[in-house]
Amino acid sequence: MIDFAIFCLTYLKICRYIPRDMVVPDPLLHRAVVEHWVRQAVYQRIGKPLPRVATAPNPLVVNVSARHCHLTPETVEILFGKGHQLTVWKSLYQEGQFAAEETVTLIGPRSRVISNLRILGPCRTLNQIELAYTDAIALGFEFPLRLSGNIEGTPGCVLMGPAGFFEMRQGVIRALRHVHMHPNDAEFYGVENGGDMKLKVGGPCAATFDKLLVRVDKSYRLEVHIDTDEGNACNLRPETSCELIR
Prior knowledge:
By secondary structure, the chain is of the alpha/beta class. It has six helices and 15 strands. The chain is elongated and about 65 Å long.
């Protein structure tokens, strides 16, 4: 059976509906990207005006950000050995970002653990762990809702790797739900960096998430990040319809 995404990409190339200046990700395209292109192609073929969602400069991608950690190069060496560098396991939607093959074990204040905590790369200038509130219950301690990078006054933990232990004095947070945007996307939606939007999720467990933080940068692709608690609450699936609202 021919893969649907590959079929749609081939169809779009044949019909020449892919903009010449649009970068085509490789390998397989994200479903939302394919649907965005196909929607544009279909409306142009039948001669009907595009709905507003199809006129957006980029397709909306909504992903569930599972628990993970960001580490400095020095911490990676403590946990995995002198000179160790992260190995790419899976590329993420944001350009240059990846899930590493390396994982660590998180040890909480009550000696409860979370094993196989994935490291995201590349390395950063600070150590940060992003968990969901259900993880806090399992570990037996509380941590605040914060913007990524704002770790002052947050609780810490101990990380265990194959080569050693590292004590984090702070850095455990639940990350604010947020949307990454290119300036073209921000102009289309009429928002600015640091502002708020709403994410409307359809389906049987439809929900609307308020206070979605807007993050704008020329390097960003349009993508919403919610955590596993939020994703489970609305039963988010690849085919679930999602919409950004001011």
